[in-house]
Amino acid sequence: MGITVKGHTAPGFEAVESAFKAGFDVDERMGAGLSIWQDGEEVVNLSAGLAEPNIAKPWSEDTTAVVFSCTKGLMSILAAQLVQQGHLDYDRPVADYWPEFEAGGKGNITVADALAHRAGLSALHSPAEFSDIVHWQPVVERLAEQTPLWLPGTGYAYHALTHGWLVGEIFRRVTGESVKSLFNRLIARPLNAEAWIGLPEGQEDRVAHIGCSQALYDFWQNEQANDSDASPNWLYRAMTLGNALPATLITEDGGFNDPRLHQAEIPGAGGIATATALGSIWSATVTPTRGVRLIDDATMQAAVTLTSEGEPVFPVPGPFPRYGRGFQLDSPARRYLSEDSFGHDGAGGQVVFADKAQRIGFAYVTNWMFGLEDQRATRIIDALRQVLKEKPGVSVDQASADSLASQSSFTSKNHSTNVS
After folding, report:
1. How large is the C-alpha radius of gyration of the chain?
2. Is 174:82 a contact under the CB 8 Å cutoff?
3. Phi and psi, residue 194, nearest 5°
4. Contact at 8 Å (CB) between 183 and 246?
5. How far is Cα 95 from Cα 114, in angstroms, rounded to an integer?
6. Cβ(191)–Cβ(74) under 8 Å?
7. pLDDT of 102 strictly over 70
8. Smallest Cα–Cα separation from 411: which of 41, 113, 142?
């Protein structure tokens, strides 16, 4: 069965398009979108496959996807903006902004700790229910009351879901705004980007339906089987909050396929956006895009300060990620373009990032979830690195990148091609 790829690719980026096409070899039921920006202009915009396999609905440029933990990257951008505006300080205790948070021995946890998964709150002591996570206060209140799972600041463990409520409540205390409102005001609206944390009415039909590989399903079923009150599996509980979500995060019409979850504010995993919207947002962190620069250089330097790395508190197989103040940095666990890159990946293969030296914004989104074997986005990033390396006067390697000279505007080639 052939896969039709639609969109545009600037001259010189053909290898990136080929890598995008190759991703569809893994499963013909999937859909995906890709958006790459350079110097504030979109040089690649591609879409292919199925947004809804059950009814053969094609993925289009307007398809939106649940981007899971890529949402944490958006929250990290918001944090940097609030620091830039003088409303937030990475080094101050969270309790300075949210007094109730001091309970349970959490008075010394800083904003940087919260952003970099060092707060000791990666999961809840007792299971939450679905009804808890579609509202704001139930989880926030439990986080404020809870004693940390480990001594805060002594190590890190991935706050898969709690990260969003933890950081989002800091924002709410500082600004008086909900995360949904703040994200729209500071990021989405200035860029005219179709991205939301809390989907508005009238947008549900555009959201891609999420599927899951058998290997990933089997993995999480095994993790669930290894969880009990006597011996908690904190990795599993971090991903599901106990009873709030299914082990794989989705069912046919549940979990993150449930419209109620799309509309809720779940800033650790519930962002919904088009590829183009995300690409433009990440571009705007490093270069003016649509007339907007979201973060200045000095603030960005502080935001990407290495804060967590190495083996986490709850052991998982390596390689291990590296985190700045919320941003996922280049590491063996997630290779970006270079050490100048920062972003975040998400469950199921989503990857977004920016590269300061190359002035790149990148977004790959998909609706078919795979496990650790997933190389779809990695192959695209590898192809992009090679494309940039081969451009005249450009030197790019795995570890570092030199600044590009200003590029002339490109003429996109619009096309529709088939992959057999």
Report:
1. 20
2. yes
3. -85, 80
4. no
5. 11
6. no
7. yes
8. 41
Judge contact between 93 and 108, C-beta under 8 A. yes
270: tokens are 């519930």
pLDDT in tens, 162-200: 999 999 999 999 999 999 999 999 999 999 999 999 999
Q: What is the pLDDT of residues 134-172, one digit of tens each?
A: 999 999 999 999 999 999 989 999 999 999 999 999 999
Residue with tokens 């995060």: 249
User: What gap in Å lies between CA 131 and CA 129, rounded to an integer?
Assistant: 5
For residue 382, report the phi and psi dihedrals to the nearest 5 degrees. Answer: -60, -40
Instruction: Could you please state the CATH topology (level 3) that the domain comprising 61-74+189-391 is classified under.
Output: Beta-lactamase (3.40.710)
Residues 6+ apart with CB under 8 A from 228: none
Q: If you search the block for the tokens 């200045």, which residue do you land on?
A: 296
- Name the one residue in this structure whose structure tokens are 């190359």: 358
**Token output for 259:** 């419209």
Contact 289, 37 (CB under 8 A): yes
- Nearest Cα residue to 196 out of 181, 218, 174, 175: 181
Q: Under a CB-based contact definition with an 8 Å cutoff, are residues 317 and 333 in contact?
A: no
d(CA 294, CA 78): 9
pLDDT at 392: 65
- Residue spans of the domains in the chain: they are 61-74+189-391
Number of DSSP helices (H) and strands (E) in the chain, helices first: 14, 18
Amino acid code (one letter) for 136: W
CA distances from 292 to 1, 285, 324 (A): 42, 9, 23
79 and 325 Cβ atoms separated by less than 8 Å: yes
Type of residue at 311: E
pTM beyond cutoff 0.85:
yes
Concatenated DSSP letters of 264-287: S--TTTB-EE-HHHHHHHHHTTTS
Q: Which amino acid is at 17?
A: E
